[in-house]
Write a structure and sequence with these properties.
The protein has about 270 residues and is an alpha/beta fold. The protein contains ten helices and eight strands. It has helices at about 20-25, 35-45, 50-70, 90-95, 110-115, 140-145, 145-150, 170-185, 200-215, 225-230; strands at about 75-80, 100-105, 125-130, 160, 190-195, 235, 240-245, 265-270. The longest helix has 22 residues, at about 50-70. It binds S-adenosylmethionine. S-adenosylmethionine binds next to α1 and α3.
């Protein structure tokens, strides 16, 4: 059940590459092991612009969080597939706008669990919690005490699935978890997501995704039409689904060529009663 693993000593399986640690390594972090660095070195032979694309994605996370808090007034966030702490973390982005903002972080990687304390540096007015759980156990995430004690599910919640859905390779499963999560959240809630596409650099990303699979990490790229389906039943906010670098860029957004950005992103709202 979600959260139970927190009481056990996590098995980091440091001899097996993990997606969170490969991401950390390529973003310049220190929470990774030789197996992750070796996998990253192999993957980036095929996917040389992966680190640039990841940085563009991370900046999308910052802008999406700011937009949700500052423009749409969200105060409650459920972030699944959080990754290792980095600067800025989502709660730092949204609490800079609204110190009373509350964030539930969720990841299923034991290395993220061991670093979760760095995610729990909330303002006194707000709150952050960490839940060790799998996105595919959507119902357990919603029912977990960490979620219930941090978020009021009677009020709108911004769900973020940033750079995680490429690891849910089956569309039916991706739709199931999104439907279960959004059904549990009231009208006015939002879904912010980004996921890998090959449309901006087909040979590079196709080879890179194959390299992830060859390293034992199932992954896939999606077309813009596939990503639109992930948002089905929700109302997309402007500018719709774009490469993450083109989604409401601000003066801090790094300049990057489209061919070096391999993620689509967007935000949509659940309407209706
Ligand atoms: C590429 S990182 C993205 C981190 C962060 N959201 C960002 O965009 O900077 C993907 C994260 O999703 C987590 N993850 C992958 N599959 C997951 C699953 N089924 N359930 C929960 N977390 C998962 C990984 O452990 C990793 O930390």
């Amino acid at each position: 059940m979600a959260g139970d693993r927190e009481s056990a000593v996590p098995d980091l399986k440091t001899n097996v590459p993990h997606s969170a640690r490969i991401y950390d390594y390529l973003l310049g972090g220190k929470d990774n092991y030789q197996a992750d660095r070796d996998a990253a070195a192999g993957i980036t032979v095929d996917w040389p612009n992966l680190a640039k694309s990841m940085r563009a994605n991370r900046d999308f996370m910052r802008r999406a969080g700011h937009y949700l808090a500052a423009e749409l007034g969200f105060r409650q966030f459920l972030d699944i597939g959080t990754g290792l702490p980095t600067a800025p973390n989502l709660h730092e982005v949204v609490q800079a706008v609204a110190p009373d903002a509350r964030v539930v972080y969720v990841d299923n990687d034991p290395i993220v669990l061991t670093h979760a304390r760095a995610l729990l540096t909330s303002t006194p007015q707000g709150k952050t919690t960490y839940l060790d759980a799998d996105l595919r156990e959507a119902a357990a995430i919603i029912e977990a005490p960490q979620t219930r004690e941090t978020l009021d599910l009677g009020k709108p919640v911004a769900l973020s699935l940033i750079a995680i859905l490429q690891f849910i390779v089956d569309d039916k499963e991706a739709h199931r978890v999104i439907d279960e999560l959004m059904t549990a959240l009231p009208p006015g809630s939002a879904l912010a997501l980004s996921t890998v596409t090959a449309e901006s650099a087909p040979p590079e990303v196709t080879a890179g995704v194959a390299a992830y699979n060859a390293n034992g990490i199932p992954a896939r790229a999606r077309s813009k039409a596939d990503v639109a389906e992930l948002f089905r039943g929700l109302e997309l906010a402007d500018p719709g689904i774009t490469l993450v670098s083109q989604w409401r860029p601000d003066d801090k957004t790094p300049a990057v060529a489209d061919a070096h950005v391999h993620m689509y992103g967007g935000i949509a709202i659940k309407r209706g009663a």
